[in-house]
């Protein structure tokens, strides 16, 4: 067949049936047709319809007619024939071949350093799949929609070679799943212009070998000096250290000033020494058990965080490696929250100055649901950090005993990121230059599009999971291959020697690194020791302070009225819903002191007074703008707005001229990632009241790992102060097992070492004072608030104005009935939360004036002094009864009985009134709920029986 150009042959009228078929595909999915066809059809869409209107869905007949007319105009110059149609078809098939390589070329890439399996057969990547024969290889086709060179045409042979070099080498990139055409074209241009080939000069190659030598050298040093100790070795994945080095240097070059890193165990010690510049001698001291022990609990060395400042071509970059527990991947949302706080502090709206980097294991990335939740946050307003660079140390094994058939249900461990259209760069860890290129491209993509991107470094794990197991027991085939592998550093050193960069270069570097290890010297040069950014937060004022309940949280009456007027006066341009309008009219009356203040107003005034004083407030959770129980209405939606993204007004953002920020975010339906994010935010920003509100308190169940591993224990393990506040709606209202209990008992079980505050306020003034106390006191501890549901609108839970302009948070509230004679009191009922109001009502019914009722508003740290003072008021009381809504094996009973016993008078007995022990937090049947509620109230006033504890 004669050689000819097929660049314009598709214009001939004989092609009309084929064009119509392609147009069908275009209408169904524009991305399914080649770019040049799509561009033609896009242009055709702009042609006015016959009736003069604009029509997006152009009918088939005009398309065919368009081609027919173009054919007629060409008929004298070149007659249409079956040969023309055949060439046109081949051009289309060539475009399909190009699209196939862009779509699935990564599946045929050379990615496995162990070469355990043959590369799969992928028919779509063969010309024969499209009816293109050997004879067609030397036909010249249009290459107009590729970036392989300046020539408009290429032979099929040349094109095929270029495609395979670009998409099927040691770097395979997935990007065609993106719905953004600009991003797809960006990747095509970046990859095809260089055919996915890195370009490093001699010095850069030597530096790369130096990083591989450091990565391998540390592991081998530790392996010989500390035999049998856990370290979660990086051997087999040394290219990861090269990737980290390249990422930091290039990020600094692009203006990044801070990088926050989250990673689990694998390679963590290597990162500490060879990336962040931790002194090797300090690491060795931890192995030798000679490091200082200055924390109540401490943690193992491969959970420790670290920070340093590194020189880059763009200036100093501050590196922070987040502390994290063993629970895989849970640190990831914490890092994102920390990054967002740092960005907010800098006014870095697009993430240009602070970069999150997350390092994953292959099985954990797709296996741990917190990653899906964190990815789902990445493009939302309240949680976006301008894109994260994800690096996967893919040792192809998951956990040691995993059978490959059980690793996952997707082709790649990275497939979960396709939920947010993120590109993935799969790269062979044995080609460190390709790893560097992948890192460069990933960073450039992130900085250009402000989206997540993944670099999947496919490597292996030379040793067992923790150096104490024998992986060959369950993976004999894989570890036979690994035993024969010379190591990435050795392969690269030999490659550079063959290129004439020094026959002994590799060995010389090994000796030099070993000498540095023996002397315990820095392996990262240069590490800045005296640099301090103006954006760094000084935590010193919040550290080393002893616990105190006292805080001056009242505000002057004039300030109260000024702020109240500001947050209850709505602009004339805003048209609120009638129900919301009534709420704000009522709040205005509360602000003037005309009526008592309810819970919503008390909370609002706490927020308003804080932002006016310079403390920012960040509130997030499901439905928190409106409030799950429609009590908050922090965001007012204009009922006359015409667009969904317009017409909202937030009064708390208009308190004062130079106020601090007030941010309220309705989160996605996520608990674990969102709570982790907010913990991370609070860990980086002590001057912001950071609050996570559960839709119902028991939704914290879905975030229990964050509560256990960070909130409750972060300070005793890592010395990390944190002032995060949790608002957990709690109260037995007959709403069934899942909407009654915030699982108070779990928090009480975690309470020790004054690690957090646990409160259950019952009035509007109490929520006002406890929120203000959280910021006014000069120390930061997590605060858990069990907030009410029915009390939000209970008039008995409102407070007079004087309780806001005077007073403070009361850890214990004593008997409030004036006519109770203390000398005649025979029983003291102690309680917490909503049940107090039920008890008061029951006492009135029974006319039991010999019973005093005491509220414990702060459950931990238990207010011994305040509670003992209340007990002493009733010297003739023989009984103290703890009454709770929750079942006996839940709630506070098992924790609080010992606290009460410590403060009882001699001869007094302690009893329990509440629901019987239960496997479920609450019953689901309404009648049974009522029966239990009636019973527990009767118990509170009845003669003690069953278990009693006598002083």
Automatic annotation (TrEMBL):
Gene Ontology biological-process annotations: glycolytic process; tricarboxylic acid cycle
SUPFAM superfamilies in UniProt: Thiamin diphosphate-binding fold (THDP-binding) (SSF52518)
Segments forming domain Transketolase-like pyrimidine-binding: 597-794
InterPro entries to which the protein is assigned, alphabetical: 2-oxogl_dehyd_N, 2oxoglutarate_DH_E1, DH_E1, KGD_C_sf, ODO-1/KGD_C, THDP-binding, Transketolase-like_Pyr-bd
Top-level class of the enzyme under EC nomenclature: oxidoreductase
Pfam families: 2-oxogl_dehyd_N, E1_dh, OxoGdeHyase_C, Transket_pyr
Its EC number(s): 1.2.4.2
Cofactor: thiamine diphosphate
Catalysis performed (reactions): N(6)-[(R)-lipoyl]-L-lysyl-[protein] + 2-oxoglutarate + H(+) = N(6)-[(R)-S(8)-succinyldihydrolipoyl]-L-lysyl-[protein] + CO2
GO CC annotation: cytosol; oxoglutarate dehydrogenase complex
CDD domains named among the record's database cross-references: TPP_E1_OGDC_like (cd02016)
NCBIfam families given in the database record: 2oxo_dh_E1, PRK09404.1, PRK12270.1
Function: E1 component of the 2-oxoglutarate dehydrogenase (OGDH) complex which catalyzes the decarboxylation of 2-oxoglutarate, the first step in the conversion of 2-oxoglutarate to succinyl-CoA and CO(2).
Protein family: Belongs to the alpha-ketoglutarate dehydrogenase family.
Protein name: 2-oxoglutarate dehydrogenase E1 component
Species assigned in the record: Ideonella livida
